[in-house]
Amino acid sequence: MSVHLLAVYALCWMSPAPSAAGTLQWPEALPADETYLREVAAETWACIAYFVEPKTGLPYDSSERADHTSVTNIGYYAACCAVAARMNLVPRDEAVARVRRVVDAYGRFQHRHGFSQSWNNVHTLEPSPDDTIISLLDSGNMVAGLVVARQLLPEVRDAVDSVLAAMDWKPFYDASDGRLFGGCDLARDRIDPGWHIGDYAGDGRMAAFWAIAVGAAPPESWDKLNRETETHYGLTIFKPAWLGGGLFMQTQDAIFLDEWNTPAGKSAADFAYAQMLYAHDRKLPAWGWSACCGPDGQYLGWGALKVAVVTPHAAGMAAQWYPHQAAECLRKLEALGARAPFSEGGEVHRLGFRDSVDLTSKEVCPRYLPPLDQAMMFLALANVLENRLVQRAFLENPTVRQGCARIAEYQRQPDPAWLAELRRRDREPLRLPPRSRPVGPSRVLIDDFEGATPSRNRLDGVNEAWTRDAKDDTVSVRMSFADAPGPGPAGRCLRVDYDVDSPNPAYGGVTLNLNRANGNGCNTLSMRVRGTPGQFKVELHCGGGSGAARVLGVKPDEWQTIQIPLSDFGGMITDWDEMDRLVLVVEDRLAEPKCGTLWIDDVELIARPNRE
Questions:
Q1: Do the bridges between strand 119-121 and strand 68-70 make them parallel or antiparallel, or are there none, so unpaired?
Q2: Residue among 304, 315, 243 at smallest CA distance from 276
């Protein structure tokens, strides 16, 4: 029997006419898809339940069972326990016991303003000595998960309410900026002034929502969030999109909040569909680009996604809009080995999907990230299979209803035409929109640094040095013209002196504004580099998306010509017109040494033979 995901808009309880939406239907899972997704959901819950520290009951961060876990993991795990009980995947008494144990463990963490730092030891409950940050992003995620647990399991309400009541969000509102600070460094006992929750379609939206809901931030702070956009296949999507870590950034809060008719929700649905079109355009066997653990063990987060690596949880989360397309994608990933059984101690377990697959090498990541990637997938599938179960539970909470009442977009009625478009996308074969073949020059000189000033490039764009926090005097980046050090061609180059050796999170670099240049006739970014950082990151931003690549093996005593295929930047970029900026980034966690000099010369876009 197919699952009809009814549009019961009593979900948003302040809606004046829920009956008006009662005849609408959400995209529905076909019978074969429902059966398949229920099997996947059951195995995914088994994975989440399996990787738990037996002494404290805290969820391990990954199947590697490392010593520390995050507060996001705690909140999402609690929600999964409650949802699994409602889906009859675990006895209710066991679910209650599991949630009580993690809430009790959280209560024994060290706290400031009612918040604990993000990472704590699963065995001793001591804070991590290596990551001493209270993150409001993580705290917002934890709140969302705990709210769902308290709504579905009344037995834990008092314990959860004590945690929520102790959290004082007011010190984290920056009245001079109009947004929330991102967090607090407990090691230095100060709020980080250079970190704000900035992106509307980022992973801090829940924290911004909750601060408004509890009255710690004014409703106007919602409008301060960055709404910069990019376009893929005719679909307008909020940034940071691919560059910021892919699909989870836009979809994770839609697991809890009713975002079917909000700009963020529509952007998330369009982003997922654009990923499908991109895979179809590139003739890839599957889609699903989101932050994950790659097959090589490297975490692919902000600025690190790879075109070849996809993650099943992205398809699972996209199932909320496209259940059929998601099920088809998951079947393809299963065929590549991503759902193979897990063996440990002589026993074999069915724990759902591993965290990622390399579509080129066909290598499967051996790890699971149970309370994060698998949890987001499980909760999203619960929405699909159980009539928006997670959303309904979350929106029953009085504080959540108060937040929805204060933010106008959460009071909108559903749009029948939009729901019909989602159903069409889900059921019909993928078709690329018509487009003309992009044309442009075969060479675009960005800068050879032989001009009158280092602050103006050959495209008449501004070159500027910057740091993460302009007020942090422990970090600096300065740029100037310099005679190119030999051996090598004579002439001038750009000298970048950097210092990211700081007790604070530190990065900085140089931005070359590209003045809407057309790079469609080119396929490679070329530059000459020399210097001390060993490696640095390069970001390319244009109207059709943003992507990043890393430059490795930079040598202090030798010039090298670095050529990066534009395809390596990812970003689902198919049109390199209206190029906005090229950003060179030196980060404290990558640069070695953390103080030094980087020389740059002859930065250009070129057309190399054998373009794919």
A1: antiparallel
A2: 315
Calculate mean pLDDT across residues 472-494. Answer: 91
What six digits make up the tokens of 540? Answer: 């390319």
Confidence check: pLDDT of 166 > 60: yes
My answer on whether 193 and 342 are in the same domain is yes
Coil, strand or helix: which one is 153?
coil
Buried b or exposed e, range 315-345, using 16+ CB within 10 angstroms: bbbbbbbbbbbbbbbbebbbebebbeebeee
Same domain, 374 and 448: no
Q: Is the pTM of this model over 0.90?
A: yes
Residues 117 and 221 in one domain: yes
In the chain, DSSP finds a helix count (H) and a strand count (E) of 15, 28
Q: Give the pLDDT score at 452.
A: 86
Written as six digits, the tokens of 177 are: 């900026």
| Rounded distance between C-alpha atoms, residue 14 and residue 9, angstroms | 9
> By the 8 A CB rule, do 450 and 481 touch?
no
Q: How confident is the model at residue 257 (pLDDT cuts 50, 70, 90)?
A: very high
User: CA 404, CA 42: separation in Å to the nearest integer?
Assistant: 32
183-185 and 179-180 as β-strands: parallel, antiparallel, unpaired? unpaired
Mean pLDDT of the chain: 93
User: Which structural domain range is residue 516 located in?
Assistant: 443-606
φ, ψ for residue 514, nearest 5 deg: -100, 0
